Amino acid sequence: MDTRGVALLCLLCIVFPSAAANRPWPTVLWLSSICSGSAVGHGNFLEIGPLDVNLKPRQWTWLKVADLLFVDAPVGVGFSYPKSPGMLVTTDDQAVEDLAALVEALLEDELPTLRHSPLYIVGESYGGKFAAMLGVILSRGIRKGTLKLTLGGVVLGDAWISPADYSASYGKLLHYVSRLNDNTVADVNKMGVMVKEQMMAEKYAKARQTFTDQLDLIESQFADMSMDNFLLDTGMYPVLTISNLKANSSSQRSNQKSGLAPNKTIVQGMNGPIKKKFRLIPKGLI
């Protein structure tokens, strides 16, 4: 979808065919982490969409309770692309402006039924930052009367809102629930302080590395702990597949740090049959 005349956001809309007509049927706008790449790919095929990465029906799909909108944001992520490199966004504000323009276009032309459907913005990891900012913009438009929309709510999942605070909390929290011993918690806390100091000094690459090292240290001390739910051991979370559980390992975090997608299978699928099916990316662009 063209948002600025020069930037195209990839949007996948999945509508439940038998949604109840006698009551408002909700719509979920899903925003994934930038590190995870495509919401159309990762959020849809690995997390909540009707099909899994092997294009098999998913038992726990959110499509059973809402229509789903997956957006690859910002421009340059997943199947979203600019018509010229100069139109890539450089700030969170620019990225969210594109998302707000997309919602307005959906209301006006592309998906007018959204006017009667409560919209829930769901963001995971860095997508949580976009979700919070987008929620503010939309709520202001609703109050002013310039936007005919019902904002059902904003949902944040492991949102990348305040990494310094997150890093500082890990040691004490995991120590309280006996996931870290007395010897290790001091090192974890020390690294949390380092993350904050490096961020305040605007040494963001070093802060990211320290944060990754901190997670690696935690995982090395309690290898059986699920990094998706610290109250459970690996393999105890029935909703997650083995590939999901492995996605937060130290090697995967290193991939995320370097900008690589975290799941080889989804990369192959998105760049193979799914890309051909969508026919979204012009030849020669990627």
UniProtKB/TrEMBL annotation:
<dbReference type="GO" id="GO:0004185">
    <property type="term" value="F:serine-type carboxypeptidase activity"/>
</dbReference>
<keyword id="KW-0732">Signal</keyword>
<dbReference type="GO" id="GO:0006508">
    <property type="term" value="P:proteolysis"/>
</dbReference>
<dbReference type="Pfam" id="PF00450">
    <property type="entry name" value="Peptidase_S10"/>
</dbReference>
<protein>
    <recommendedName>
        <fullName>Carboxypeptidase</fullName>
        <ecNumber>3.4.16.-</ecNumber>
    </recommendedName>
</protein>
<dbReference type="InterPro" id="IPR018202">
    <property type="entry name" value="Ser_caboxypep_ser_AS"/>
</dbReference>
<keyword id="KW-0121">Carboxypeptidase</keyword>
<comment type="similarity">
    <text>Belongs to the peptidase S10 family.</text>
</comment>
<feature type="signal peptide">
    <location>
        <begin position="1"/>
        <end position="21"/>
    </location>
</feature>
<keyword id="KW-0645">Protease</keyword>
<keyword id="KW-0378">Hydrolase</keyword>
<dbReference type="InterPro" id="IPR029058">
    <property type="entry name" value="AB_hydrolase_fold"/>
</dbReference>
<dbReference type="InterPro" id="IPR001563">
    <property type="entry name" value="Peptidase_S10"/>
</dbReference>
